[in-house]
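Friendly challenge for the regulars: who can give me the structure tokens for this chain first? No prize, just bragging rights.
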Amino acid sequence: MMHFDPQSDKRTLPEKDVRLLLALLIAASSLLITGLVLPMMTITKLVMFSNSFSVLSAVLELLENGHLLLFVIVAGFSIVVPILKISVLFKLILNRSSDSAIVNKLLHLMHEYGRWAMLDVMVVAILIVAVKLGAIASIEIHSGLFVFGLAVLLIMFITRRVVSLTSGPR
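First reply, four minutes later:
Bragging rights claimed.
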């Protein structure tokens, strides 16, 4: 549990939790960056033509092909929001003593908007690709999908842990 001083309205995370959460957050950041650039899948069309892509290359492909709305949605939820969420987590963990009103606001934002990030949109994007291609192509999954998924799960775990540690007396 987070230590709370009602006189100053300040909260501090215990040192052992800070070290563990920082290590996990650094690992999650590395996994996210790696997952964004590693190939996620290879699509083979008509047995002769194949194309491998990562999250980053797929997002750029959407932009190049003029699919601006899809580009904004997928890039926003799969790249921008996770990076913002990691930044907020770093801020919450590194600020050992912070104003509880600010902490509560950041936690509320992460809780409300963070759950829509990354995983849901990625799954929907993969399903859209798979459904569009149907019988004319085969899809081979690569390590990028698993690394990205692991980063998502780790960020969700860290968020949950930070929320549970910071939810003390109001």
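The chain has one domain: 13-166. Confidence is low (pLDDT under 50) at residues 1-10. Your move, everyone else.
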